[in-house]
């Protein structure tokens, strides 16, 4: 393998319901920086059915070139046909770096591509950098339980690949005047040769506010003492109209369902207010909430690492403080609402 | 008769492991070795499918000799046979080299008894990647079905499986040819209590153990550290953020201060 044959930073563009997935736009933002530093092109690989018209969006968000595989066989994501298309593209155009969103689809596809090429793949990256002169990708991720980061390299194989967690990187402000090159590609795939078929797609609407879309998240950890103590988190969230989050250990203890887990192996959230209550603040949790606008931590251990990553902290027993907060918010929030309504009336008067 | 193989791993229990405050790394001595919790669901599902359709459940792991304990745990859960590959040549493997070694062991198992279905857990709690399962499927050139949270039907005669794959906002129903590989979500099942006869069998169970030399057609360059394209170049502690402002006073005073900070964002509460 001649490493110099491999050029360009690529992003696999995930399409959902006919739109570019937000994580792919974020990766174009991150990829743009890498491409500029390395002095090379930023490419997007777009696979789907009837998706060619999405290319201008990708240019607006930073892509220089978009490789398009548009065919009805790609109507639903399936490993086999998507993998064939992306392998074809990698072998023909030889990118130096290929990034994917760490979504179910991105992880599935990246794992398959890494095995078939073969090349190295770093999972759930949170920091990306590139060496200007060598093109070596520095992919960092929180490592195994500890409060540490590991930087992972892939020196001898190309492309260098990584999956990157949603909401960690930032999309560029779109520039509708930007344009680029569209490269249309085709591969021979016959439906009757495909070994998997999607029979049905069932969308389930979630009743409560999705934790990754909520303005306020109240998250609890082991400091709540027990499953019963954790009820206080639900109560406070109800009063605030917030979604409930949780640390990994309470999810594993069965106090709450996995959908609520915030962190490296859970959901990444960026609410306007994040409460971390009884959460010590292991790095694998921090990476899932550090971009929140206002972070409030309550913990009885004054040395808990969470206090390093919050805006305001209270040292104290959550089981004592949270009931007080619930009581006071119950008194004050209706007053705020009333004053807002009053202003509204004055305006209409 | 179905032959289902669950791939499993023994991992340090990160839930109880302590962090060494000096090095910021996990103190391995403080962490008991357990069966990776996600893999327990893979074994449970294999055993349930055996009960539904008849067949044999094998488990396979790669690891150092003490990993026999994790296999015994699987026997307790209802697995019939255990296989382990254990050799210094496998040490230091990343996900690519791991899927290579496991695929070679699976080929060897399949020679004794053809495999219809391979089930892996969603990921391990120590590596957190979820890349090994799909990697094995690609190496054996069988369809990988990730994120399976329900098995609707396995039909060996007609050679297909129908499952639900979890999506971010729902699920999809997928039909695949057999053999294929599932990676399963935790929600797919609840782990059953091990019946006493299984526990007795497990206590005395000893798996088939193969070294790298016992596996056929192995390219040693693809094993362990040598076969791993990724390397950890450095482990570092992120610079500590300067930290937040600590609220002082009595509990009531702290609560009042916090209240006014939060309620300052009044637009969040007025809708």
Automatic annotation (TrEMBL), chain A:
Cofactor binding note of this UniProt entry: Binds 1 FAD per dimer.
Binding positions (FAD): 247-248, 261-265, 278-285, 299
Record-annotated Electron transfer flavoprotein alpha/beta-subunit N-terminal domain positions: 9-198
One Pfam family in the UniProt entry: ETF_alpha
Natural source organism: Geobacillus thermodenitrificans (strain NG80-2)
Cofactors named for this entry: FAD
Keyword Transmembrane recorded: no
Underlying gene: fixB
InterPro entries assigned to the protein according to its UniProt record, in alphabetical order: DHS-like_NAD/FAD-binding_dom, ETF_a/b_N, ETF_a/FixB, ETF_alpha_N, ETF_asu_C, Rossmann-like_a/b/a_fold
Top-rank taxon, per record: Bacteria
An example Gene Ontology molecular-function term: flavin adenine dinucleotide binding
CDD domains linked: ETF_alpha
Protein keywords: FAD, Flavoprotein
Entries under SUPFAM superfamilies matching the protein: Adenine nucleotide alpha hydrolases-like, DHS-like NAD/FAD-binding domain
Protein name: FixB protein
Regions crossing the membrane: none
Family of the protein in this entry: Belongs to the ETF alpha-subunit/FixB family.
Keyword Flavoprotein in record: yes
Gene Ontology BP terms: fatty acid beta-oxidation using acyl-CoA dehydrogenase
Automatic annotation (TrEMBL), chain B:
Domain Electron transfer flavoprotein alpha/beta-subunit N-terminal, chain residue ranges per copy: 23-219
GO molecular function terms listed in the Swiss-Prot or TrEMBL record: electron transfer activity
InterPro entries according to UniProt: ETF_a/b_N (IPR014730), ETF_b (IPR012255), ETF_beta_N (IPR033948), Rossmann-like_a/b/a_fold (IPR014729)
CDD domains per record: ETF_beta (cd01714)
Pfam families: ETF (PF01012)
Protein's name according to its UniProt entry: Electron transfer flavoprotein small subunit
Gene that specifies this protein: fixA
